[in-house]
Sequence to fold (444 residues):
Amino acid sequence: MSPYLGEPRDLYHGRALCVLKPRTAREVGDILALCNAAGAPVIPQGGNTGLVGGQTPDASGASVVLSLERLNRIRAVDAAADAMTVEAGVTLAQAQDAAQAADRFFPLSLASEGSCTIGGNLATNAGGVHVIAFGSMRDLALGVEVALPDGRLLSTLGALRKDNTGYDLTRLFIGSEGTLGVITAATLKLFPRPRSRAVGFLGLRDPAQALKLLNFVKGRAGPMLNAFEVASRSGLDLVLRHIPGTRDPLAQPHEWYALVELAAFADGEAERAGAEILAAALDAGLAQDATLAQSLDQAAALWKLRESLSEAQKREGGSIKHDIAVPVSEIPRFIDEAGRRLAAAFPPARPVPFGHMGDGNIHYNVSQPVGADKAQFLARWAEINAIVHGVVRELGGSISAEHGIGRLKRDLLHETKDPVALDAMRAIKAALDPNGILNPGVLL
Ligand code: ZN
Fold:
């Protein structure tokens, strides 16, 4: 059972009665009905890549881990309706491939796409690098199939684009973190497949310049803008130090970087626009330096710098994580203010901010001081959280932009969410899961 009892950040490790691996949605329903009758807690689990402990059983040993990994079929692809229905255990990469095989594009993209699964992506309302153009998982599903604690299957599956018949149950289950039902399948939206792509990497002075650049690129690229990611030099340094085969694509070091991706449908269109926009941005003084990938390999190498940030930080030692959102226009103020307060309270800590600037979402991770003891540093998790989340609150932000709440942020949620909204969430939970068997201790 061991692989099912821990999680990638090593913050949670639990015990379980057993791990169950059903093969069909009907079996999932039958398991839930049995557990409901027996009062056994059920911990649904997809690819076990979640970052907030929402897929990990507690230490009691009384829970059933319900792995969805064998529900791994592509049920139907309807290219003409731009929709496909897949089961919860299909990996994100398999879903992307199935779309491509039908000459379509499924835009969700994250660092863990080889192992994370569609069910988990839905349960946590995953975001990733293309939210700026396509939205998060909540925007990418047309319907879901969900097993309820009483054993029944609820289905909103289907390729309907319009269905204005009452409560939006699809969106209710997406982001519910396994606390209302177990998602067994979903109908996902597909998009036309881009035929040209341009990836640029720009050296910047500071986050304020990144904000100006973002608005400049948005205004010129319009719907071609597919990603606008930023990272500090502290992050790039860690990647270059720890990830083999990476190199700095620019001649001089810069304090900040942006990775910009454009996609278009005519051959060469994105490349032409990318070259023009980068040159214009340099002319306008909105970047210190820039390079545009000249091949797919170069584009992949630039993306690797961005996608390796978490792994590089892990290899550097302990880090205290934040997944925050503020209005896009407040990102520079957030980064400056969080950095200032952190430096005052705990000078040797090393902020490594990076993330999805275009969505106002920064992973404001703080690496341990050089040579410090990892456990001693991680013991300051709550203290450093309080400093960073204090700035988030002042700027009208969110303590979880795309990772969810899980066990990690449950108490924080209760401190920050509108109490009336929390009451409504509890009422929904009580109606759908009256015995509280689904993922107890997570979210609520
Ligand atoms: Zn992210």
Remarks:
- The chain has three domains: 1-193+410-435, 196-309, 317-404.
- Residues 125 and 175 are 5 Å apart (CA to CA).
- The pocket of zinc ion is lined by residues 127, 355-356, 363, 402 (CB under 6 Å).
